[in-house]
Amino acid sequence: MNTLLSYQLISRDIATSIKRVEAQPLVSRETEYYRENIGNIKSIEEFVEDTRLFNYAMKAHGLSDMSYAKAFMVKALEGGIDDPESFANSLTDKRYKEFVKTFNFARDGEATTTFYSPTTGTIDKYLRQTLEEDAGENNEGVRLALYFERKASSIKNFYEILADPALGKVVRTALGFPESLAQADIDKQVEMFKDRIDIEDFQDPEKVDEFLQRFATLWEINNPSYTQNTSIAALFSQPAEFGISTDMLLTIAQMRK
């Protein structure tokens, strides 16, 4: 299945896709543990000491690769986000600020884990994050498309796109720019983006979908889902088809837009 079709199958019924993820045994166990125990956490220390809860929350915010850096995260949590010069606010990667905003012990103290964001909201993020990671195991382009779809409405300017490698990769691919452009001057990249797209389009779900269809089509051209070996194997494992395949018709249709 090519990038476009895989993305569309997941995104067009995202609720069902997430339910399938939630039903996975490991995901189900970790989610149940989080749901039953997060409300008992009353401090930053308790939070980071429960590795299972902490890792769940970190993954939910796309920070799994930093789960080991507990001292770093404690510093961010202790500083909160109310002070513009706090540690979390000083970090270029906005995921940390979002994490501290969710688990705002600095402001809310023991009441922190009674709110929606640290409880149900974090569970929803964890399931979506897992869905995207699972998709990426089969096709990185699908994961990138799902990630962009999730983040699109929060994008306010092109500098935010360039600050996020995944968002930048999607935009460069969709616009037909080489990946080497990522090394160019930031302001120059912004001007090139402005010449091709309107940032306001990312507030419109229909325009985002059109944009991601183009991305998925171009990603497939540069990163084919089918290799020569799999194509040859298909000749012996599937009934022969005549004419142009459905996949090819979809690809051609998207390229004409």
Task: Tell me briefly what this model is.
The protein has 257 residues and is mainly alpha-helical.
What does this structure look like?
The structure is a single chain. With 257 residues, this protein is mainly α. The protein is built from 17 helices and no strands. It has helices at 3-11, 14-22, 25-37, 44-49, 51-60, 70-79, 87-90, 94-102, 105-108, 117-138, 140-151, 158-163, 165-174, 186-196, 205-222, 228-237, 246-255. Helix 3 packs antiparallel against helix 10, helix 5 (51-60) packs across helix 10 (117-138) and helix 13 (165-174) packs across helix 15. It is globular, with a radius of gyration of 21 Å.
What series of H and E elements makes up the topology?
HHHHHHHHHHHHHHHHH
**Average of per-residue pLDDT values:** 88
Head-to-tail CA distance between termini: 21 Å
Biggest beta sheet attributes = none
What class, by secondary structure content?
mainly alpha
Low-confidence residue ranges: 228-257
Mass-distribution shape: globular
The helical percent reads 55-70%
Tell me the Rg in angstroms.
Answer: 21 Å
Strand elements, count: 0
SS strand fraction: under 5%
Labels describing this entry:
mainly alpha; single chain; disordered C terminus; globular; about 260 residues; about 65% helix; 17 helices
Topology, element by element:
Elements: H1 3-11, H2 14-22, H3 25-37, H4 44-49, H5 51-60, H6 70-79, H7 87-90, H8 94-102, H9 105-108, H10 117-138, H11 140-151, H12 158-163, H13 165-174, H14 186-196, H15 205-222, H16 228-237, H17 246-255
Helix pairs in contact: 1-11, 2-10, 3-10, 5-10, 10-11, 11-13, 11-15, 13-15
